[in-house]
User: Which sequence fits this backbone?
């Protein structure tokens, strides 16, 4: 019973001193100065990785509606990334398409 009382007291203290988080305004990710838009039903799945091996973190973006994967090369730096226009990842000259479900 004593342990339960201690646990409940600790939870009360944590909750009573918790602060409401404050977030900055949202920022659109841009490519060539234009917000990235995957279109209606796009449901993008972003992933940051050095895809081209140049030491800079690039953007891979999976598209739900077509199952394609966009590659946005980082032409800036890791601390101030600038993404150029995308190309679709390809296998043997054909855009990769990943099915869902």
Assistant:
């Amino acid at each position: 019973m004593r342990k339960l009382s201690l646990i409940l007291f600790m939870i009360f203290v944590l909750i009573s001193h918790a602060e409401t988080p404050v977030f900055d305004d949202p920022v659109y990710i841009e490519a060539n100065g234009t917000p990235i838009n995957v279109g209606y039903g796009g449901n993008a799945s972003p992933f940051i990785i050095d895809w081209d091996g140049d030491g800079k973190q690039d953007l891979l973006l999976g598209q739900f509606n077509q199952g394609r994967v966009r590659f946005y090369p980082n032409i800036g730096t890791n601390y101030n990334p600038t993404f150029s226009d995308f190309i679709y990842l390809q296998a043997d000259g054909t855009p990769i398409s990943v099915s869902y479900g």
Summary: The chain has a mean pLDDT of 86. Helices lie at 2-16. DSSP finds one helix and eight strands in the chain. The radius of gyration is 21 Å.
